[in-house]
Amino acid sequence: MDNLLTRKLEIFAPLPDADRRLLDHTVRMARLVDGRADLIREGDDPLHVRLILEGFACRYKLLPDGRRQIMAFLVPGDFCDLHIFILRTMDHNIGTLSPCRVVDIPRTRILEMTERPALARALWWCSLVDEATLREWLVNIGARSAEQRIAHLLCELLMRLETVGLASNGSYDLPITQAEIADTMALSTIHVNRVLQRLRAENLITFKNGALVIPDVPRLKAFSGFNPNYLHLTERNGSKEPRR
Amino acid sequence: MDNLLTRKLEIFAPLPDADRRLLDHTVRMARLVDGRADLIREGDDPLHVRLILEGFACRYKLLPDGRRQIMAFLVPGDFCDLHIFILRTMDHNIGTLSPCRVVDIPRTRILEMTERPALARALWWCSLVDEATLREWLVNIGARSAEQRIAHLLCELLMRLETVGLASNGSYDLPITQAEIADTMALSTIHVNRVLQRLRAENLITFKNGALVIPDVPRLKAFSGFNPNYLHLTERNGSKEPRR
DNA sequence: CGTAAAATTGATCTGTCTCAACGTGGGTGG
DNA sequence: CCACCCACGTTGAGACAGATCAATTTTACG
Fold first, then answer.
1. Is B165 helix (H, G, I), strand (E, B) or coil?
2. pLDDT tens digits, A71-113
C-alpha cells in the first residue's frame, strides 16, 4: 500500500520507483502533536519542513485585537512550510486543530527531493495548488453568502480528503469546532451555528456520530457554486520534462 | 539603468551579469494592450508567460450572477502566469485595468531561466511572495473594517510600487476606478466612495492631479494594521545555493 | 460642446454581529 | 459512581456596518 505522501504527490503524476522509495523512507519518522498546539509561529526561521500525516492543522494570523483569521486548512498529505527555502521567516502561524501525526523533513532531504525531476515538479504542484486554493478562498469569503461559504468549504474538504482516502460516500471526520469554522469563514461563531442549522434543516448536510455526511454531494456543490478546477486534480503530467 | 524585471528580481538577490543580460534581452519585445482587456481567460492553456512592464492588471474570477472578485493586482514587474508550467489550465482570468505594456515570454525562455540557479530562485521567490500576498488579502477582507481594508491596500501598493521605482514620497499613480476597488475589497462601489471620502476627511489620503498622495505614511500604516513582512522584501539571499 | 463613465448623495433595507443567557455532554476528581 | 465543570453548542433580542435602490453631479474626452 502506498504511503500517504506518495499517494498525494502521485495525484499530479506517477513517480519512478526510486522516488517512491525515497518517500517511503521520508515518512518513517513521525511524531505526535496535541490538538490546538502551534507547530510554527510567525517570525520563526524553521530548520525543516513539516508534513501532516494525520489530523487537521491550519495556517492563521492573529490580529492586534486578538481575533484570528485562518487562511488554510492542512489535511494529511499537506506540507506546512515548503517555502522556507526561499522565504526564511514565517509570515504566519501554523497550528494543529486536532491531534496530529507530523513528520519533520530535514532541509537536506527536501534538497535531495528537488534534485529528482519528477519529485521537484510534484512539490511545485503542491505549492501552486495551495496558491490556487487561496485564490478560491478569497472569492469564497469576498463574494459568497454565509451559507454558500460554509457549504463550499465542506465540498472542498470532501474532495481533498477523498484524494488521500480519508473520505468516501460523501462523508468524512471533521474534528473542528464551530468557532474554528467561524475564524476560517470570517463569520461570528453564533452565525456559523445558525447557518449550520439551516444547512441541516435543508438536508444539505447531516452529522452521524461525529462525522459529516453530505447526503447529496452534487446538490451541495451546486448550492455552494463549487467548481473543483482550482484543485487541479486531473491535469496529470506523466512526462519527465515539462511539455514543449 | 536596470530594466524593470532585473530590478524586481534583484529585490531577492543580486544576479550574475550573464543573468542580467538574459533579462535585458527578454524584456525587449513588448506589446501594448488596451485598458480593460483580458490577457488570459479561465480555461485557457497559455503558450507563454506574460510579464507586465507598464500599467495595472488584475487576476479575477467571475461568479454565476455576474459579479467579479479581483484576487490580485499585477503591477510592473509582476508575472501573470508563471504557474502554467505545472498547472496547464488557467483557473482564473487576468485582465488589464489601465493600458499596459506586456512582454510574452516563450516557455523555452523561462526554461532557460530556470536552469540558472540564481534566476530559478528569484522566480520561485516571485511565486511565493504572490502566495503570501494572497494570504494577507484573505486577512484583509476577512478581518478588517472597510476603512482599514482600503487603507491597507493603498499601503501595500505604495511599497510594491516603490520597489520598482514607481512611487516616491508616499505618492503614486493609481489608474483604477472606485468600482474596481469595490470588486477587489468585496465592498459595494457606493461604500467604497464613502470610505474614500472619510479617509480624505481624516487627511489619511489625498489626490493631487490623478495621483494618490499619502501625507503621513506611518500613520496610514498604523491605521490599517499594515505589516510589510509578508512582502519579504528584506530577506536577501546572496549565496548561489540555498543555505545549509 | 455633448456624451458617457465615474463619482457623489440620500434614503432605506438586511445580513451579520454583539451581548447575554441557557442547555448539554463528556471527562475528571473526590 | 456520582457530581461537578468546562468547553461547546444553542437561543433570543437589539445594534450596526455595509448593501441596495434611485437620482444627481462631476469629470474626461472625442
1. coil
2. 999 999 999 999 988 999 999 999 999 999 999 999 999 999 9
In chain A, the residue whose alpha carbon lies closest to the alpha carbon of B47 is A244
Per-residue pLDDT reduced to its tens digit, B165-210: 999 999 999 999 999 999 999 999 999 999 999 999 999 999 987 7
CA of A43 to C1' of D20 (A): 43
Q: Quick check: B10 and B123 in contact, CB under 8 A? A: no
% chain A with pLDDT above 70: 95
Identify whether the C-beta of residue A98 lies closer than 8 Å to the C-beta of residue A176: yes
* Banded model confidence at residue B85, pLDDT cuts 50, 70, 90: confident
B15's CB contacts (< 8 A; 6+ apart) are B6, B9, B23, B118, B119, B122
* Helix A178-185 vs helix A146-163: crossing angle, to nearest 10: 110
List pLDDT tens digits, range B121-136: 999 999 999 999 999 9
Grid cell, residue A135, equals 485564490
Using pLDDT thresholds of 50, 70 and 90, give the confidence band for residue B240. Answer: very low
Cβ contact, residue pair A91, B67, below 8 Å:
no
Grid cell listed for A91 = 509570515
Q: Which chain A residue shows the shortest CA-CA distance from B135?
A: A71
Query: Residue B71: its chain A contacts at CB < 8 A?
Result: 135, 138-139
Here the cell at position B174 is 493609481
Q: Which of B83, B125, B230 sits opposite A91 (nearest CB)?
A: B230
CA of A191 to C1' of D13 (A): 15
User: What is the distance between the alpha carbons of residues B206 and B197, in angstroms, rounded to a whole number?
Assistant: 10
- Domains parsed from chain B with CATH numbers: 4-137 (2.60.120.10), 146-231 (1.10.10.10)
CA of A187: nucleotide with nearest C1': C16
